[in-house]
Amino acid sequence: MSDFPVIRTPRLILRELCPADVPALFAIHSDADAMQWFGTDPMTDDQQAEQLLAQFASWRSLPNPGVRWGIERQAEPGLLGTCGLFKWNRPWRSCAIGFELARAAQGQGLMTEALHAVAGWGFEQMALNRIEAQVHPQNLASLRLLERMGFVREGLSRQAGYWLGAHHDLVQHGLLRADWPSLAPLAASPV
User: Fold this and answer.
1) CATH of domain 7-186
2) How confident is the model at residue 184 (pLDDT cuts 50, 70, 90)?
3) pLDDT, tens digit, for every residue of 41-90?
4) Of 174, 189, 182, 186, nearest in space to 129 by CA
5) Number of neighbours of residue 180 by Cβ within 10 angstroms
6) pLDDT value of position 183
7) How many CA atoms lie within 13 A of 66 on its CB side?
8) Whole-number Cα distances in Å, 133 to 42, 49, 59, 69, 72
């Protein structure tokens, strides 16, 4: 992956994260209530946001690369959250999807719009056959979002996650390329 794949949707720009995003990334990831389902402890200082930014950037150079996009409105610059594809298993043509959104931007269909574009990009540009997601069973908003996108619940991974000093079960979901054509009109084209 050489050039960063910028994606535009009707309302959003999915773009490369940059150092100017650190304060917004910190604000999102330090919100303990919003991050209770993310899979990591809430951030306590800006350095952690800088490290997360570097981690997301490093995904593109891994043997099995991934992409993490910053999400912002086309009409109003400023980071709203991130989403991405990671843990790419090229021989199996599969990867995982992850996402988070600032609390003020939730409930507006923005993540649905972003994830439709990202999934479409993954099926087209990465030649994926499968996209996986793991979500905490009490994260109802994310579970509903995945179901609206066509992800199928496949089971429960017992105590698969560990954050906030406790082990957590995660609900496993999968979206197959064969399931995608009915959703394809909602996906945006890469720029």
Assistant:
1) 3.40.630.30
2) very low
3) 889 999 999 999 998 898 888 887 899 999 999 999 999 999 999 999 99
4) 174
5) 21
6) 44
7) 20
8) 21, 23, 17, 17, 22
